[in-house]
Amino acid sequence: MNHHNASKEKGNHSELSSRNALSNRDDERLKSGNGSSGLGLAEQLDRPCPPAGSNIHLVSVSDIEESFSNLHAEIVEDGKDDDCEMDELGEDHVDSQLIGSESDDKKEKKKLNRHFHEKESRSDNRGQWILNQRMRMQKRQLKCRWDIERLNTPFLAIYESLIPLEEEKAKQKQLLTMLEKIVRKKWPEARLYLYGSCANSFGVSKSDIDVCLAIEDKDIDKCEFLLKLADTLQSDNLQNVQALTRARVPIVKLMDPVTGISCDICINNILAVVNTKLLRDYGQIDARLQQLAFIVKHWAKSRGVNETYQGTLSSYAYVLMCIHFLQLRRPAILPCLQGMDPTYSVTVDEVECSYFDQVEQLNGFGSQNKETIAYLVYAFFNYWAYWHDYANDVISIRTGSIMR
Protein backbone atom coordinates (compact mmCIF):
# COMPACT_ATOMS: atom_id res chain seq x y z
CA MET A 1 0.00 0.00 0.00
CA ASN A 2 2.78 2.45 0.91
CA HIS A 3 4.72 1.52 -2.25
CA HIS A 4 1.58 2.16 -4.32
CA ASN A 5 1.02 5.60 -2.72
CA ALA A 6 4.67 6.51 -3.23
CA SER A 7 4.45 5.52 -6.90
CA LYS A 8 1.25 7.52 -7.29
CA GLU A 9 2.80 10.61 -5.71
CA LYS A 10 5.87 10.20 -7.93
CA GLY A 11 3.61 9.97 -10.98
CA ASN A 12 1.70 13.08 -9.98
CA HIS A 13 4.97 14.93 -9.42
CA SER A 14 6.19 13.90 -12.88
CA GLU A 15 2.97 15.08 -14.48
CA LEU A 16 3.17 18.39 -12.63
CA SER A 17 6.76 18.82 -13.85
CA SER A 18 5.68 18.10 -17.42
CA ARG A 19 2.92 20.66 -17.13
CA ASN A 20 5.41 23.24 -15.88
CA ALA A 21 7.65 22.63 -18.89
CA LEU A 22 4.73 23.04 -21.30
CA SER A 23 3.57 26.09 -19.38
CA ASN A 24 6.92 27.88 -19.72
CA ARG A 25 6.93 27.24 -23.46
CA ASP A 26 3.49 28.76 -24.08
CA ASP A 27 3.29 31.54 -21.47
CA GLU A 28 3.96 34.40 -23.89
CA ARG A 29 1.30 33.21 -26.32
CA LEU A 30 -1.30 33.09 -23.55
CA LYS A 31 -0.42 36.52 -22.21
CA SER A 32 -0.80 38.13 -25.60
CA GLY A 33 -4.24 36.63 -26.17
CA ASN A 34 -6.26 37.33 -23.03
CA GLY A 35 -7.86 40.75 -23.03
CA SER A 36 -6.29 44.17 -23.01
CA SER A 37 -4.34 43.69 -19.80
CA GLY A 38 -2.10 40.91 -21.17
CA LEU A 39 -2.53 38.82 -18.02
CA GLY A 40 -2.87 35.06 -18.36
CA LEU A 41 -5.50 33.22 -16.34
CA ALA A 42 -2.97 31.89 -13.80
CA GLU A 43 -1.54 35.37 -13.21
CA GLN A 44 -4.99 36.64 -12.23
CA LEU A 45 -4.67 34.78 -8.93
CA ASP A 46 -2.37 37.61 -7.86
CA ARG A 47 -4.03 40.39 -9.81
CA PRO A 48 -7.64 40.24 -11.11
CA CYS A 49 -8.15 41.16 -14.75
CA PRO A 50 -11.65 42.66 -15.15
CA PRO A 51 -12.90 44.18 -18.41
CA ALA A 52 -11.03 47.38 -19.16
CA GLY A 53 -12.68 50.39 -17.57
CA SER A 54 -12.26 54.11 -18.05
CA ASN A 55 -9.69 55.72 -15.76
CA ILE A 56 -11.67 58.94 -15.59
CA HIS A 57 -9.17 61.10 -13.76
CA LEU A 58 -6.66 61.08 -10.94
CA VAL A 59 -8.11 62.19 -7.62
CA SER A 60 -6.17 64.10 -5.00
CA VAL A 61 -6.21 63.31 -1.30
CA SER A 62 -8.21 66.47 -0.60
CA ASP A 63 -10.80 65.36 -3.16
CA ILE A 64 -11.00 61.99 -1.42
CA GLU A 65 -11.68 63.61 1.94
CA GLU A 66 -14.28 65.92 0.39
CA SER A 67 -16.12 63.13 -1.42
CA PHE A 68 -16.24 61.06 1.75
CA SER A 69 -17.32 63.85 4.08
CA ASN A 70 -21.02 63.30 3.33
CA LEU A 71 -20.94 59.60 4.19
CA HIS A 72 -23.17 58.86 7.16
CA ALA A 73 -24.63 55.78 8.79
CA GLU A 74 -28.07 55.57 10.29
CA ILE A 75 -28.65 52.93 12.96
CA VAL A 76 -32.26 52.86 14.07
CA GLU A 77 -33.46 51.88 17.53
CA ASP A 78 -35.72 48.83 17.48
CA GLY A 79 -37.98 49.88 20.34
CA LYS A 80 -41.38 50.98 19.18
CA ASP A 81 -44.43 52.29 21.00
CA ASP A 82 -46.95 49.67 21.98
CA ASP A 83 -49.98 51.38 20.43
CA CYS A 84 -53.41 49.90 20.98
CA GLU A 85 -54.99 48.55 17.82
CA MET A 86 -58.25 50.19 16.71
CA ASP A 87 -61.25 47.93 16.42
CA GLU A 88 -61.97 47.63 12.70
CA LEU A 89 -65.69 46.93 13.17
CA GLY A 90 -67.94 50.01 12.96
CA GLU A 91 -71.56 50.62 13.84
CA ASP A 92 -72.62 49.61 10.33
CA HIS A 93 -71.58 46.03 11.11
CA VAL A 94 -73.88 45.93 14.14
CA ASP A 95 -76.75 47.51 12.21
CA SER A 96 -76.40 44.95 9.45
CA GLN A 97 -76.92 42.17 11.98
CA LEU A 98 -80.26 43.67 13.04
CA ILE A 99 -81.77 44.10 9.59
CA GLY A 100 -80.18 41.21 7.75
CA SER A 101 -81.66 37.82 7.02
CA GLU A 102 -80.83 34.75 9.07
CA SER A 103 -78.21 33.58 6.57
CA ASP A 104 -76.68 37.04 6.52
CA ASP A 105 -76.67 36.99 10.31
CA LYS A 106 -74.73 33.72 10.36
CA LYS A 107 -72.24 35.05 7.84
CA GLU A 108 -71.70 38.17 9.91
CA LYS A 109 -71.15 36.15 13.09
CA LYS A 110 -68.55 34.03 11.31
CA LYS A 111 -66.91 37.20 10.09
CA LEU A 112 -66.83 38.59 13.62
CA ASN A 113 -65.39 35.37 15.05
CA ARG A 114 -62.73 35.26 12.35
CA HIS A 115 -61.85 38.91 12.97
CA PHE A 116 -61.43 38.48 16.72
CA HIS A 117 -59.41 35.28 16.21
CA GLU A 118 -57.06 37.08 13.81
CA LYS A 119 -56.82 40.03 16.18
CA GLU A 120 -55.94 37.73 19.07
CA SER A 121 -53.29 36.03 16.93
CA ARG A 122 -51.83 39.40 15.93
CA SER A 123 -51.84 40.43 19.56
CA ASP A 124 -49.88 37.30 20.54
CA ASN A 125 -47.37 37.89 17.74
CA ARG A 126 -46.98 41.54 18.69
CA GLY A 127 -46.49 40.58 22.33
CA GLN A 128 -43.73 38.16 21.34
CA TRP A 129 -42.18 40.82 19.10
CA ILE A 130 -42.19 43.36 21.95
CA LEU A 131 -40.60 40.80 24.29
CA ASN A 132 -37.88 40.06 21.72
CA GLN A 133 -37.20 43.77 21.24
CA ARG A 134 -36.90 44.31 24.99
CA MET A 135 -34.42 41.44 25.20
CA ARG A 136 -32.45 42.95 22.31
CA MET A 137 -32.42 46.33 24.06
CA GLN A 138 -31.14 44.70 27.26
CA LYS A 139 -28.41 42.88 25.34
CA ARG A 140 -27.32 46.18 23.79
CA GLN A 141 -26.55 47.51 27.25
CA LEU A 142 -24.11 44.69 27.99
CA LYS A 143 -20.51 45.80 27.88
CA CYS A 144 -17.76 43.91 26.14
CA ARG A 145 -15.52 41.71 28.29
CA TRP A 146 -12.71 43.69 29.85
CA ASP A 147 -10.18 41.06 28.74
CA ILE A 148 -11.34 40.81 25.12
CA GLU A 149 -7.88 41.79 23.87
CA ARG A 150 -6.54 38.46 25.12
CA LEU A 151 -8.27 36.90 22.09
CA ASN A 152 -6.19 38.89 19.61
CA THR A 153 -3.45 36.28 19.33
CA PRO A 154 -5.82 33.28 18.92
CA PHE A 155 -7.90 35.11 16.31
CA LEU A 156 -4.83 36.10 14.32
CA ALA A 157 -3.59 32.50 14.53
CA ILE A 158 -6.91 31.30 13.06
CA TYR A 159 -6.65 33.89 10.30
CA GLU A 160 -3.10 32.90 9.38
CA SER A 161 -4.01 29.21 9.33
CA LEU A 162 -6.68 29.94 6.70
CA ILE A 163 -4.36 31.75 4.27
CA PRO A 164 -3.65 29.55 1.22
CA LEU A 165 -0.07 28.25 1.12
CA GLU A 166 2.23 29.05 -1.79
CA GLU A 167 2.24 25.35 -2.73
CA GLU A 168 -1.54 25.46 -3.09
CA LYS A 169 -1.34 28.60 -5.23
CA ALA A 170 1.25 26.93 -7.45
CA LYS A 171 -1.10 23.99 -8.07
CA GLN A 172 -3.95 26.37 -8.85
CA LYS A 173 -1.78 28.18 -11.40
CA GLN A 174 -0.85 24.88 -13.06
CA LEU A 175 -4.51 23.93 -13.43
CA LEU A 176 -5.46 27.37 -14.74
CA THR A 177 -2.64 27.35 -17.29
CA MET A 178 -3.78 23.96 -18.56
CA LEU A 179 -7.44 25.10 -18.73
CA GLU A 180 -6.49 28.19 -20.68
CA LYS A 181 -4.59 26.13 -23.26
CA ILE A 182 -7.50 23.71 -23.71
CA VAL A 183 -10.05 26.50 -24.15
CA ARG A 184 -7.85 28.60 -26.44
CA LYS A 185 -7.19 25.65 -28.71
CA LYS A 186 -10.93 25.18 -29.27
CA TRP A 187 -12.07 28.83 -29.04
CA PRO A 188 -9.10 31.14 -29.87
CA GLU A 189 -11.14 34.35 -29.43
CA ALA A 190 -12.42 33.45 -25.96
CA ARG A 191 -11.38 35.56 -22.96
CA LEU A 192 -10.92 33.98 -19.54
CA TYR A 193 -11.34 35.75 -16.21
CA LEU A 194 -10.99 34.61 -12.63
CA TYR A 195 -13.70 35.69 -10.24
CA GLY A 196 -14.99 34.85 -6.78
CA SER A 197 -13.02 34.12 -3.63
CA CYS A 198 -9.94 32.78 -5.44
CA ALA A 199 -9.36 36.24 -6.95
CA ASN A 200 -11.00 38.75 -4.56
CA SER A 201 -8.45 38.17 -1.73
CA PHE A 202 -11.05 36.52 0.54
CA GLY A 203 -10.40 32.92 -0.50
CA VAL A 204 -9.40 30.64 2.34
CA SER A 205 -7.27 27.53 1.95
CA LYS A 206 -8.73 24.78 -0.26
CA SER A 207 -11.25 27.06 -1.93
CA ASP A 208 -12.63 26.11 -5.33
CA ILE A 209 -11.68 28.11 -8.42
CA ASP A 210 -14.27 30.10 -10.39
CA VAL A 211 -13.62 30.98 -14.03
CA CYS A 212 -15.68 33.11 -16.40
CA LEU A 213 -15.38 32.30 -20.09
CA ALA A 214 -16.36 35.35 -22.16
CA ILE A 215 -17.59 34.91 -25.73
CA GLU A 216 -18.41 37.86 -28.01
CA ASP A 217 -21.77 36.49 -29.13
CA LYS A 218 -25.03 37.94 -27.80
CA ASP A 219 -27.07 35.12 -29.33
CA ILE A 220 -25.01 32.31 -27.84
CA ASP A 221 -26.91 29.35 -26.40
CA LYS A 222 -25.17 29.02 -23.03
CA CYS A 223 -26.47 25.53 -22.32
CA GLU A 224 -25.36 24.18 -25.69
CA PHE A 225 -21.98 25.88 -25.34
CA LEU A 226 -21.46 24.44 -21.84
CA LEU A 227 -22.19 20.93 -23.13
CA LYS A 228 -19.54 21.38 -25.83
CA LEU A 229 -17.12 22.76 -23.24
CA ALA A 230 -17.74 19.77 -20.96
CA ASP A 231 -17.02 17.34 -23.81
CA THR A 232 -13.80 19.20 -24.65
CA LEU A 233 -12.57 19.17 -21.05
CA GLN A 234 -13.45 15.52 -20.53
CA SER A 235 -11.46 14.52 -23.59
CA ASP A 236 -8.39 16.10 -21.94
CA ASN A 237 -8.51 13.68 -18.98
CA LEU A 238 -10.12 16.01 -16.45
CA GLN A 239 -12.33 14.17 -13.97
CA ASN A 240 -15.90 14.60 -12.66
CA VAL A 241 -16.77 16.96 -15.52
CA GLN A 242 -20.43 17.93 -15.27
CA ALA A 243 -22.46 20.47 -17.23
CA LEU A 244 -25.07 21.90 -14.84
CA THR A 245 -27.26 23.62 -17.42
CA ARG A 246 -30.33 24.03 -15.18
CA ALA A 247 -28.57 25.85 -12.35
CA ARG A 248 -29.40 29.51 -11.64
CA VAL A 249 -26.00 30.29 -13.15
CA PRO A 250 -25.25 27.42 -15.57
CA ILE A 251 -21.72 26.09 -15.08
CA VAL A 252 -19.35 23.27 -15.91
CA LYS A 253 -17.87 21.63 -12.82
CA LEU A 254 -14.63 19.70 -13.00
CA MET A 255 -11.76 18.36 -10.93
CA ASP A 256 -8.11 18.02 -11.85
CA PRO A 257 -6.94 14.47 -10.95
CA VAL A 258 -3.34 15.66 -10.49
CA THR A 259 -3.85 18.60 -8.12
CA GLY A 260 -7.24 17.54 -6.70
CA ILE A 261 -8.52 21.09 -7.20
CA SER A 262 -12.15 21.70 -8.21
CA CYS A 263 -13.14 24.38 -10.68
CA ASP A 264 -16.43 25.91 -11.90
CA ILE A 265 -16.64 27.57 -15.32
CA CYS A 266 -19.51 29.89 -16.31
CA ILE A 267 -20.26 31.79 -19.51
CA ASN A 268 -20.32 35.61 -19.87
CA ASN A 269 -20.88 36.37 -16.18
CA ILE A 270 -18.86 39.58 -16.48
CA LEU A 271 -20.67 41.40 -13.67
CA ALA A 272 -19.28 38.85 -11.21
CA VAL A 273 -15.79 39.62 -12.52
CA VAL A 274 -16.27 43.35 -11.88
CA ASN A 275 -17.62 42.60 -8.38
CA THR A 276 -14.47 40.58 -7.75
CA LYS A 277 -12.32 43.61 -8.51
CA LEU A 278 -14.44 45.79 -6.20
CA LEU A 279 -14.06 43.41 -3.25
CA ARG A 280 -10.34 43.00 -3.87
CA ASP A 281 -9.91 46.78 -3.88
CA TYR A 282 -11.73 47.00 -0.53
CA GLY A 283 -9.44 44.29 0.82
CA GLN A 284 -6.35 46.38 0.08
CA ILE A 285 -7.46 49.37 2.17
CA ASP A 286 -7.26 47.89 5.67
CA ALA A 287 -5.91 44.47 6.72
CA ARG A 288 -8.65 44.12 9.33
CA LEU A 289 -11.25 43.51 6.62
CA GLN A 290 -9.54 40.36 5.36
CA GLN A 291 -8.88 39.18 8.92
CA LEU A 292 -12.51 39.67 9.94
CA ALA A 293 -13.89 38.11 6.75
CA PHE A 294 -11.69 35.00 7.10
CA ILE A 295 -12.77 34.49 10.72
CA VAL A 296 -16.47 35.06 9.97
CA LYS A 297 -16.39 32.69 6.98
CA HIS A 298 -14.60 30.08 9.10
CA TRP A 299 -17.28 30.43 11.81
CA ALA A 300 -20.08 30.20 9.23
CA LYS A 301 -18.66 27.04 7.68
CA SER A 302 -18.10 25.46 11.11
CA ARG A 303 -21.70 26.22 12.12
CA GLY A 304 -23.19 24.99 8.83
CA VAL A 305 -24.62 28.37 7.80
CA ASN A 306 -22.61 28.93 4.62
CA GLU A 307 -24.64 27.11 1.94
CA THR A 308 -27.15 29.00 -0.20
CA TYR A 309 -28.87 25.80 -1.35
CA GLN A 310 -29.73 25.14 2.32
CA GLY A 311 -31.24 28.59 2.76
CA THR A 312 -28.22 30.18 4.47
CA LEU A 313 -25.84 32.90 3.29
CA SER A 314 -23.07 32.66 0.72
CA SER A 315 -19.44 33.60 1.35
CA TYR A 316 -20.01 36.66 -0.85
CA ALA A 317 -22.84 37.81 1.45
CA TYR A 318 -20.66 37.44 4.55
CA VAL A 319 -17.93 39.57 2.95
CA LEU A 320 -20.52 42.28 2.16
CA MET A 321 -21.66 42.16 5.79
CA CYS A 322 -18.06 42.69 6.93
CA ILE A 323 -17.53 45.63 4.56
CA HIS A 324 -20.79 47.26 5.65
CA PHE A 325 -19.93 46.78 9.32
CA LEU A 326 -16.49 48.38 8.91
CA GLN A 327 -18.01 51.28 6.98
CA LEU A 328 -20.26 51.99 9.98
CA ARG A 329 -17.50 52.03 12.61
CA ARG A 330 -16.72 55.42 14.09
CA PRO A 331 -14.14 56.47 13.08
CA ALA A 332 -14.81 54.53 9.88
CA ILE A 333 -12.37 51.76 9.00
CA LEU A 334 -13.47 51.55 5.36
CA PRO A 335 -14.74 54.26 3.01
CA CYS A 336 -17.57 53.93 0.52
CA LEU A 337 -15.73 53.52 -2.79
CA GLN A 338 -18.89 53.92 -4.86
CA GLY A 339 -19.72 57.15 -3.05
CA MET A 340 -16.46 58.81 -4.09
CA ASP A 341 -15.41 60.38 -7.39
CA PRO A 342 -15.07 57.38 -9.74
CA THR A 343 -11.76 56.45 -11.34
CA TYR A 344 -12.99 53.16 -12.81
CA SER A 345 -16.12 52.84 -14.90
CA VAL A 346 -17.49 50.05 -17.06
CA THR A 347 -20.97 49.12 -18.26
CA VAL A 348 -21.92 45.44 -18.08
CA ASP A 349 -25.27 44.26 -19.43
CA GLU A 350 -26.59 47.84 -19.23
CA VAL A 351 -25.47 48.09 -15.59
CA GLU A 352 -23.08 50.98 -14.94
CA CYS A 353 -20.29 50.00 -12.55
CA SER A 354 -18.33 53.03 -11.36
CA TYR A 355 -16.25 53.56 -8.26
CA PHE A 356 -12.97 54.91 -6.91
CA ASP A 357 -10.33 52.22 -7.47
CA GLN A 358 -7.09 54.10 -6.72
CA VAL A 359 -7.04 52.46 -3.31
CA GLU A 360 -3.30 52.99 -2.86
CA GLN A 361 -4.25 56.59 -2.04
CA LEU A 362 -6.40 55.29 0.82
CA ASN A 363 -3.63 53.56 2.75
CA GLY A 364 -4.10 54.43 6.40
CA PHE A 365 -7.71 55.53 5.87
CA GLY A 366 -8.90 53.73 9.01
CA SER A 367 -5.80 54.44 11.11
CA GLN A 368 -7.73 56.69 13.50
CA ASN A 369 -9.80 53.67 14.51
CA LYS A 370 -7.69 51.60 16.91
CA GLU A 371 -10.09 48.67 17.31
CA THR A 372 -8.34 45.31 17.26
CA ILE A 373 -9.51 42.19 15.47
CA ALA A 374 -10.62 40.68 18.78
CA TYR A 375 -12.90 43.63 19.54
CA LEU A 376 -14.15 43.79 15.94
CA VAL A 377 -15.18 40.12 15.98
CA TYR A 378 -17.17 40.77 19.17
CA ALA A 379 -18.69 43.98 17.75
CA PHE A 380 -19.57 42.28 14.45
CA PHE A 381 -21.70 39.61 16.08
CA ASN A 382 -23.15 42.09 18.56
CA TYR A 383 -24.24 44.36 15.71
CA TRP A 384 -25.88 41.64 13.64
CA ALA A 385 -27.53 40.00 16.66
CA TYR A 386 -28.89 43.03 18.52
CA TRP A 387 -28.67 46.18 16.41
CA HIS A 388 -29.61 45.45 12.81
CA ASP A 389 -33.35 45.80 12.09
CA TYR A 390 -34.01 42.79 9.88
CA ALA A 391 -37.65 43.77 9.28
CA ASN A 392 -37.01 47.24 7.88
CA ASP A 393 -33.36 47.84 7.00
CA VAL A 394 -31.26 46.83 3.99
CA ILE A 395 -27.49 47.23 4.04
CA SER A 396 -25.78 48.91 1.09
CA ILE A 397 -22.03 49.10 0.61
CA ARG A 398 -22.81 51.15 -2.52
CA THR A 399 -24.06 54.00 -0.32
CA GLY A 400 -22.09 53.10 2.80
CA SER A 401 -25.27 53.22 4.87
CA ILE A 402 -28.59 51.55 5.61
CA MET A 403 -31.48 51.75 3.14
CA ARG A 404 -35.18 51.43 3.85
TrEMBL record:
PAP-associated domain sequence ranges: 373-403
InterPro entries in UniProt: MTPAP-like_central, NT_sf, PAP_assoc
Bias (Polar residues) ranges: 14-23
Subcellular location: Cytoplasm
Segments of this protein annotated with the region Disordered: 1-48, 92-124
Domain Poly(A) RNA polymerase mitochondrial-like central palm: residue ranges: 155-284
Cofactor(s) needed for function: Mn(2+); Mg(2+)
Any single GO BP term: mRNA destabilization
Molecular function (Gene Ontology), one example: RNA uridylyltransferase activity
Keyword field contains NADP: no
Gene Ontology CC, one term: cytoplasm
Pfam family, one: MTPAP-like_central
Protein name, entry field: JHL05D22.13 protein
Organism of provenance: Rhizophora mucronata (Asiatic mangrove)
